[in-house]
Structures are given as structure tokens and as C-alpha cells.
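ZP: hey, is the flavin-adenine dinucleotide complex queued? I don't see it on the tracker
AM: it wasn't, my bad. submitting now with these inputs:
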Amino acid sequence: MRGTSSPRELFREMGKQGYLGITVPERYGGSGLGYTAQSVVQEELGYSSASIALSYGAHSNLCLDNLYRNGNEHIREEFVPRLCSGEWIGSLCLTEPGSGSDALAMRTSVTEDRGEFVLNGSKTLITNAPYADLMLVYARDGDGYSAFAVRATDRGVSKGSKFSKMGMRGSPTGGELHFQDVRLGPERLVGQRGGRPGT
Ligand SMILES: Cc1cc2nc3c(=O)[nH]c(=O)nc-3n(C[C@H](O)[C@H](O)[C@H](O)COP(=O)(O)OP(=O)(O)OC[C@H]3O[C@@H](n4cnc5c(N)ncnc54)[C@H](O)[C@@H]3O)c2cc1C
């Protein structure tokens, strides 16, 4: 992977070499291996660059593995292969300006309107967010929490600039991500609706 100059180029190269989607079956563009293989790849990447290992983990594990395991067939067919090939870069969005360790205090919320979900709120400190094409976003949903596959191109999504960090500067960490009345079809729900930790 020497000579790559941008995260996009790097992710495409990692996709070509089969490093992305290691835990995803080959049918969906992955390598059909397991968590041990993924850990080995991440550790080896980390010997060269902790930043790249961090971005790789956010893409391959936090976002892609999670999407494959909990996603419906639409998500598996349409989104998972693009993340496996590196055509798309992924993020997981949990942290907010007012909730970090206390993640369940999140204020991003979802409501329903005419058969669609409507997402409103902000996230921050998200690995890969400046380049992310697909974001797995958690939101308060009534008394529980739901997760959604959100595309960067969905109407109502906007991104702040990336943070200038003291370290891990090769892993882009997003400034604020805003979701304003982002309308999502039912196929964008990832996993069960309105889940509550511990139940
Ligand atoms: C480089 C980087 C990448 C990140 N990538 C992502 C990402 O991809 N997706 C994502 O969702 N988030 C991401 N985060 C955010 C990360 O998950 C949060 O920073 C983390 O959850 C802590 O939240 P906080 O920064 O708001 O700190 P706080 O929750 O405000 O904590 C500040 C300090 O208080 C301590 N503390 C908090 N609560 C308690 C308590 N009850 N008792 C005692 N001490 C306590 C903490 O240990 C910490 O030392 C990233 C952060 C960084 C720095």
C-alpha cells in the first residue's frame, strides 16, 4: 500500500487486497473469515500506522461488520459490497456534543412520518466522518434507541470540517455532523427498532 496518498485510494487498495469486510461472507463481497483474522490484519496495520489501524477498525468493524450482522437484505445487497470493496468509506456515529461516555443521554432522535423515519440531531468526534459515504447512526426512538444506515448524500445531512488532533492525525475525525429532517425509508433501519440496553 506504499504510495497511496488519500484515504479513498488507501481504502480502495485495502478492498482490493481483501482486508475490508473480512467477517462478511464472500456472497456480499467480503472474505468470509472471522474476528481473529480481522484482529490480525488490524494489528499488522497498526505496526505501520496506528492511525490507519484506527480508521480501518471504524470502517470494517464498527460500521461494516455491524451493518452486515444487523442489516436487512437491502442493506446487505446495496451497501455492504460497496464498503467491502472500499468504494465507500464507513463510520459509526454514537457520540454527540453533549454525550460521550454517557452515550444513552444522546439527543439525536427519530420520529415517523408517512411511512418514513425522520432523523434530527448532531454527532461529533466520529472517525472517518470527513470522508464517510455511509454512516451507521444511533438515535433516540421513543423510550428506546434505533440505528440507521445514512448516506452522506441524503438530503439534510451536513458535515463540519475535520478536527486537527494532537495525535492519530492520519485518521480523520469529524467535526460535527448534522442531521436535519433527514427522511429515511424503512429499509434504512438497522436491527430492531427501539431497543433498550439490557433488555
Ligand atoms: C480519536 C477519536 C476517535 C473517535 N471515534 C469515534 C467514532 O468513530 N464514533 C463515535 O461515536 N465516537 C467516537 N469518538 C468519541 C469517543 O467515543 C468519546 O470521546 C468517548 O465516548 C468519551 O466521551 P467524551 O469525549 O465526551 O468524554 P466524557 O464522557 O465527557 O469523559 C471525560 C472524562 O470523564 C471521565 N468520566 C466520564 N464519565 C464518568 C463517570 N461516570 N465517572 C467517572 N469518570 C467519568 C472519562 O473517563 C473521561 O476521562 C472518538 C474519540 C476520539 C478521541
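AM: back. DSSP finds five helices and ten strands in the chain.
ZP: great, adding it to the tracker
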